[in-house]
Amino acid sequence: MPSILRRHNTIVDRIVNVIQSGTITTDQQVGAANSRLRPDIIVEEDNKVLIIDVCCPFDSNAEALCDAEQRKLNKYEGLKQFFVGQGKQCKVLGFVIGALGSRHPANENVLRQLGMSKRYRSLFRKLCCTDAIQGSTNIYWEHLGITGGSVDADNSE
Question: How many CB atoms are closer than 10 A to CB 28?
């Protein structure tokens, strides 16, 4: 698996692991929607649907993270309308962590929607930023052709 995808999936997995209720679908098309889109996470509970899509853009300027989130919202608008058409409440949420570890303030809404306590949100933000930085370091080492140099949170010194 390419390092870029591994960095992304690490953050997706971290989010999935904290979801406490609902039916969780990851990286799957919604068959009935006639759409080829594959959101990272769909959480369905009762009449509510959360579509969460993660991205790790390069944090080159102040607008980069906002732009990335807006692209996610635009991308999944049609899928949102599909669920609304079924009589469900649906929210599309982008979860944006910069490749260098910056975080988008709108991520707080995602964490609140998932029911995280204020205290755990503080830790979760740090963990996601660390995941992004570690993933970017691995991408850089791979680019340089360095093998066996990947950073692993469990083995880093």
Answer: 12
Say if CB 40 and CB 51 are below 8 A apart.
Answer: no
Residue 155 buriedness (CB in 10 A; 0-12 / 13-18 / 19+): exposed
CATH of the domain at 22: 3.40.1350
Full-model pTM: 0.88
Q: Which tens digit of pLDDT belongs to each residue from 63-86? A: 999 999 999 999 999 999 999 999
Give me the number of domains the chain comprises. Answer: 1
Alpha carbon distances (Å) from 11 to 45, 77, 145: 22, 23, 24
Distances 141 to 15, 102, 120, 154 between C-alpha atoms, Å: 26, 20, 31, 18
